[in-house]
Amino acid sequence: MARLIWLTGPSGAGKDSLLNALREAPPANLVIAHRYITRPADAGGENHVALSEAEFRRRAALGLFAISWQAHGFSYALGEEIDHWLARGLNVLVNGSRLHLPIVQQHYGARLLPLVLQVSPTVLAARLRQRGRESDAEIDQRLARAAEPLPAHCYPLNNDGALIDTLDQLRRLLEHPP
């Protein structure tokens, strides 16, 4: 059964690094979906499709999104292509939203494999400070949110060490899904 792999994790856990590494050498049966976001293309971070608010609303009205949500002042979506890829038997990995997991669970049911990329508080704090995007107060907020318990039925993926180790964990999980 093809799976929708819903990757979440706190900002600074390494989701973009993991996705970029997988794009370089993906498992044979895996496609990594781009998100459509109302954020400039050069905003940094993930490789996404930048849309204006008007274009986002237009595409939503045309039914071109499989899933959409609002977060951090932006609109996010996954295109309907993910459903076509799943129908072809391909696993689809997406950079998801922890808060919107219940909606995705309702829609995809047993095909959903929710993963949470985790790092220890010490590693997360160091990464957040190193990238220099947040104030100390914002970092404290991110650390508090990262300490919240995992949502039910999510599988942890530790990214404290080398990225290659995290990739190996993910590959093993994909070879032998729960």
Automatic annotation (TrEMBL):
It catalyses: alpha-D-ribose 1,5-bisphosphate + ATP = 5-phospho-alpha-D-ribose 1-diphosphate + ADP. Gene3D superfamilies: P-loop containing nucleotide triphosphate hydrolases. SUPFAM superfamilies: P-loop containing nucleoside triphosphate hydrolases (SSF52540). Keywords: ATP-binding, Kinase, Nucleotide-binding, Transferase. Residues 1-178 form the Guanylate kinase/L-type calcium channel beta subunit domain. It is an enzyme of class 2 (transferase). One of its GO terms (molecular function) is ATP binding. GO terms for biological process: 5-phosphoribose 1-diphosphate biosynthetic process; organic phosphonate metabolic process. ATP binds at residues 9-16. Pathway: Metabolic intermediate biosynthesis; 5-phospho-alpha-D-ribose 1-diphosphate biosynthesis; 5-phospho-alpha-D-ribose 1-diphosphate from D-ribose 5-phosphate (route II): step 3/3. Its EC number is 2.7.4.23. InterPro entries: GK/Ca_channel_bsu, P-loop_NTPase, PhnN. The keyword Kinase applies. Transmembrane segments: none annotated. GO terms for cellular component: cytosol. Catalyzes the phosphorylation of ribose 1,5-bisphosphate to 5-phospho-D-ribosyl alpha-1-diphosphate (PRPP). PANTHER family: GUANYLATE KINASE-RELATED (PTHR23117), RIBOSE 1,5-BISPHOSPHATE PHOSPHOKINASE PHNN (PTHR23117:SF8). Belongs to the ribose 1,5-bisphosphokinase family. This is Ribose 1,5-bisphosphate phosphokinase PhnN. It comes from Pantoea wallisii. The lineage of its organism: Bacteria, Pseudomonadati, Pseudomonadota, Gammaproteobacteria, Enterobacterales. The gene is phnN.
